[in-house]
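Risk register update: the risk that structure generation would not scale has been downgraded. Supporting records follow, first protein first.
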Amino acid sequence: MKKENWSLLFILSASVLLSLLYIPGFGHNPLSGDKEVYRYIGQVIRNGGVPYRDAFDHKPPLIFFLNYAALLLGGDWGQWLIDTCLALLATGAFFQLCRKYKLPYPWLLPLLFNLMIRDFYMCLGMGMTREYTSMLLLIFFCVLLGKYRYHYFLMGLLSGLVFFTQQDQVLCLVPFFLYAFLPEQDTVPFLTRLARTAAGFLAIALPVILYFVLHNALKDFWQDAFLFNLTWYTTTLKASFGDHLRKLKLIMDGGNYEVVSLVSVVLGVCAVIFPNTNRKLTLASLAAVVLSIIPEFMGGRDLPTRMTGMSFTHYFLPLSASLSILLFCVFAFSAEPALQGRRVQVIYGILICCSLSYTAIRFATHRPLDGYGRDIVTCQEMYYLRAHKPKDDQLFVFGSTDYLYAFNEFRITGPSKWIYQHFYTLYDHWDNDHAILYSIRADLSSHKTTYVIDCTSSSWFRDTSAYKIWNSFLLEHYQPVNFPDKDKTDTLAQLWKLKGIPD
């Protein structure tokens, strides 16, 4: 076997091995409220429902269809397979690009990408939207420089996949689009390039829009996936620039991204200043690094805890792709001897990969037995529900998306579309007229929902009148299920059962 093929085999094997850290049943794929929402809406689709119309979320729809496909392929195993294959595709394409540009170690940067995207401090396991968009960003860059026959169409197609998976991540593509449309980059006329790119984007956008038109849910799609984000999610909560920088430092340091980020950005700036054969693309890659973490500076979702805890770490996953791309531009295009050569690049390789490699090895050999969300899987509420398995519409969760795990374990759907309620604790003016709250009450009453998992308290609601409306409904129609030996520190949830229902 040729040396290059051994290198390809090595990096593909490394990608699979890092994915094996999160293999269902044996790996560590922590429970996450976001992932439980995606799985739940995948379950809604499988049961004939429609995202946004039958289950509220503010993410674009492709993540729900991906989870629906995972269910068809076997649930957790299906998701692991899809995730691993996409990582292999990104890794293989990036390796071929590094080899095409004659990097001394074409496996080095693909290895860095895999170490970063599988960093358990940052990724929250498999299945987050920004994990997928990071892989798509790297594939997009490979297509940009690959000069494939239909590469403008493919660039548009990939941008459509990114946009309908996580809208804000399309910002990372903007510098590369600007570079691709420079007059000197191609002899193809500008309008032709634009038309081919638009055709690729529409190949994703039109089927998505048509799906919601055919299901009479286009208005719901627009309001939840776009209008909500513009009017609430990115504008209502604000933080100072200093708060964002402090959070950035906390996450980068705690997640082992700090060294690789510092080294990559310094080398990128030096590559722009020193002689460079493609300074424009290097500048574009530097801009992409900044834009890949711009969502952290949009709003302030976790202000109460942002200075003390590692929250929203997955927002930084796109750095796995953008920093790898930046280093590629440094190694491929810099004409400065201090940035070139086998010896120089192996030193930089050790600097950027050493700590991340240690993190991966340590995680592989000392995987936590009780990860985040384990208390939910093993809590007495779940044991009770397993003994009294609810059917569709017979379970509702209020105040915690983590407990949507119960729906996914039992493969059921709930009585109300409002599976997200944490806006009551985030926004002062959310549901001012209590229309949403009353609709939840009406849905529970009309379906005679048997069980409610309530994770709220009087302090959880910003609006005390909303708490009174919700609590009075529970007290009137439900009775608490008490567990005499329950450890109150184990979970904050309270299971309620419809009055008149025997044990």
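Supporting record for the second protein:
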Amino acid sequence: MPATAGPLLEQLRREADAAVAECTARASAEAERIRESAAAQRERRRATTVAAREQALAREREAARARAAQSTVQAVLTARAAFLDRVFEAAERRLEALAGAPDLAARLAPLIAEALPFLRADDTRVRCRPALRDAVGRALAAAGRGDAPVESDDSVPAGAVLEDAARTVRVDATLTARLQRMRAALAIDAVRAVEGTTP
């Protein structure tokens, strides 16, 4: 090999080493970029999965809270309904006990007076328990309709039932019927009183 070839070979070797070093550096940088990109993708996937799971858990918690709230409301409403049933059953028993009250005629007078306008004066029939005929008769007289015939009927609760001869118009003037008509308003007052929310 000529002596002049030595420096050229040395130059080529240096250039080759530099090229190899540059390729190695680029490959290392690319490998690092790939590793970082993969790590970033894994982190994004992990974050997305965690976020999706957290959202699913939040929905499950909200659904559980809604179910619990609905169950609680249902239980409260059921308890209120049972309580009101007991209250009105007791009230009906007490109203029935008024059948023997000495002031029954005075108690029935407003109910009968409210019922009479729905019937013609010449076509009014009244039914009540035999034991209440006197009290109902006095209540009719107080309303100016003492001439209305009163029939005995053991099935009528405390009070009277007024109807026309054909029984096409019927007005229930019993204490129990009055209680039932007022039940919605009385139920609200009863619940408010029990819950301490009376305005």
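DSSP finds five helices and four strands in the chain. On this basis the risk owner (M.S.) recommends closing the item.
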